[in-house]
Amino acid sequence: MANAITIGRLVLLYIVIWLIYTGSTGVITACMFLLVLVFAGDGLDGWVARRQGTTSTFGAVFDIAGDRMVENSLWVIFAHLGLIPVWIPLLVLGRGFVVDGLRSISFGEGMTAFGEKNMMRSALTQWLTAGRFMRALFGYMKAAAFVFLCGLVAWETKDTSGTALGSLYGVQGFRWFGWALVWGAVALTVIRGLPVLWDAIPYMREIDRRKREGIA
């Protein structure tokens, strides 16, 4: 069931992307709420897996892969629409490749990306990458940033005069707040990725040492 939820949120994501490119003001406004459902599914699939006792290594990896597909796809399309510079999706994609590559090695050692059995070596890096507060902050900030950018598409490219969306985005303070969410999400992407690289270096050295010495 949990994996079905992950698949469902990916299907919904690409429907939303299609509607953002082809829809009217009302449709794109509705896409803002659909994006909330896409991100709500991220927490729901994990909750269902724990509730049903169906957690698995495949499910954990598939969930992370689903998160990457959602995040990367949205950064790319908003860059393509000219709302954000192209270096943002390039940065996010590069960070994802490095972090997931390093974590794949830890999976082979019986570790997980989050939880108690991860490769973080200090309380600070543990808190930054796997702590519930930071994970929640990052997740909510990304979701809010993407919802803001979705509405911005309609506000900048459609006639939103006389609509609630037009009134909301017409407030400069709201737009400043929305852009603060966007840049905050980009900053947290880097901040939460660097500790993985930092802790991976001695971890990889330890694995190499064990291999040289023939230790299983």
Itemize the secondary structure elements and their pairings.
Blueprint: H1 2-22, H2 25-52, H3 57-80, H4 87-108, H5 123-130, H6 132-157, H7 164-169, H8 172-212
Keywords:
Four Helix Bundle (Hemerythrin (Met), subunit A), 216 residues, mainly alpha, 0% strand, 8 helices, elongated
Architecture overview:
The protein has 216 residues and is mainly alpha-helical. It has one domain (2-212): Four Helix Bundle (Hemerythrin (Met), subunit A) (Up-down Bundle), CATH 1.20.120.1760. Helix content is 81%, strand content 0%. Helix 2 (25-52) runs antiparallel to helix 6, helix 3 (57-80) packs antiparallel against helix 4 (87-108) and helix 4 runs parallel beside helix 8 (172-212). The chain is elongated. The model has no long low-confidence stretch (mean pLDDT 83).
